[in-house]
Amino acid sequence: MRWMAGIPATVALVAAAKLLLHLAFAHRYNYFRDELYYIACSRHLDWGYVDQPPLIAVLVWLEMHLGGTSLTALRFLPALAGAALVVLTALLAREMGAGKFGQSFAALSCAAVGIYFVMQYLMTMNAFEPLFWMGCAYVFVRIINTGNQRLWLWFGALAGLGLQNKYSMGVFGAGLVAGLLLSAERKALARRWIWMGGGVALLIFLPNLLWNMGHHWPFVELMANIKASGRDVVLGPAEYFVQQIFIIGPALFPLWMAGLLWLFFSADGRRYRPLAWAYVAALALFIGMKGKNYYLAPAYPMLLAAGTVPLERLLARWGRPWLKPALVLLVLTPAMLLLPLGLPVLSAENFLRYEEKLPFALPVSEKSHAGAAMPQYYSDQFGWEEMTAAVARTWNGLTPAEREVACIGGRNYGEAGAIDFFGPRYGLPPAISAHQNYFLWGPRDCTGKILILLGDRPENLRGRCESAEVAAELHHPYAVLFENKPVIVCRGLRTDLRALWPRLKIWN
């Protein structure tokens, strides 16, 4: 491909190494809670869901049908997205003026970003978000370098697909528009191509927009509920910025900060200054919206790429041949030492020993996971099949007449998703839940005569059921979701579940 011509072979090697590293450990633990939910969504394909646009469900559907249901198959596309991001970062560096070492170092730096190991290890929207942000950044730089305004159509196509992946694509788009207004590139707004590109983005995003309108804006309601509940850990501006340094990697901080300063103040970097404003605007918006610390992570490849331009020039001026391998070691060494925080290269037992020896505490983004033995992206992979097996024992303990009218319900989409995924091998029916999009799928024909419930406590149900009995205790040493939440059999729900359903909605 012509656009790849001239990219150093080392870039391909770094991308291939990252891909293989992810695939080697894709199956180490188990299915992540959100992955189980996305698998359920892929069985109910639609133009939207309560908590996300439709692209992730489509991608999971493709993986399930082409590669099967194994963890390696499920996590192949995220790993591929990580490798593609490495190449895209090198391309950005080249477009900004970096030579072969700068392009290779940009690729290596992107591959070593701490939070990307997590994001590109699991099958979630976060794995693909940086590709859409940086794809738009790359097209923007090409527009500046070539003057080809027609490229705004490609920008719009990527932005539209990005919105179908995750709504935060709009934050980057809004930041870039602000950057255009604050720079000489505002002249693009006087031409038709940028507006046509916006039209392309809107056209691609329109089905999901109409879905949200038709369902009375569930995502807006969800965000309001999350804010009101205080679910997330709120960070102040200084703490939010410091955590950016931590999650990207302290060794990379000088590089991406140099890139930001180069974009703002250097004579040749200022032509791309809207990208710097896009970063600052996104940072300000996420701080103002009390966003999680990783929400800004998709923006850093462009800053890493920009930072290689002044770095390469500085190395050429100093003329010390040992500096380049020293810089490579400076990036690789901490990345390897901290790799267990992003990829399950250690067993769970060894990870806990490793975690105890760390000189710092890992940040927590949701308050409910503050007491977990492992980070949430690890702890939420444990216990699901054991839970399903406990439900199966409870199910098989019912009389045949009871099984005829019994239903299985989960308070959380992870519990319901686990029953839907693992349940068929145990002979269990599909689950119901009032959480997130499960609420829209409804209670089906379940009346509530016999309910096997997960994620609740018996004392919360005794006023609603004629009897609420603990059928099995759930516990897992690495997960917090099962603590004090046994398998409960509710007999004789006092109100028909189908009539009660509208009041059970949990969007949080």
Q: What gross morphology would you assign?
A: globular
The proportion of strand residues reads 5-15%
Measured as a percent range, the helix fraction is 55-70%
Evaluate the radius of gyration.
Answer: 25 Å
> Which stretches of 5+ consecutive residues score pLDDT under 50?
none
Q: Which quaternary structure do these chains form?
A: single chain
Mean pLDDT: 93
Q: First CA to last CA: what distance?
A: 45 Å
Largest sheet: 5 strands, mixed
Tally of individual domains:
2
How many helices? The count is 24
SSE sequence, one letter per element? HHHHHHHHHHHHHHHHHHHHHEHEHEEEH
What is the total tally of β strands? 5
How does the helix and strand content classify structurally?
mainly alpha
Order of the strands making up the biggest sheet: 2-1-3-5-4
Question: What key phrases describe this protein's structure?
Answer:
508 residues; mainly alpha; five-stranded mixed β-sheet; 57% helix
Characterize the structure shown.
It is a single chain. By secondary structure, the chain is mainly alpha-helical. The protein folds into two domains: 2-218 and 226-341, no CATH class; 384-503, no CATH class. Helix content is 57%, strand content 5%. It is built from 24 helices and five strands. Strands 2-1-3-5-4 form a five-stranded mixed beta sheet. Helix 6 (100-111) packs across helix 16. The longest helix has 23 residues, at 192-214. The radius of gyration is 25 Å and the shape is globular. The mean pLDDT is 93.
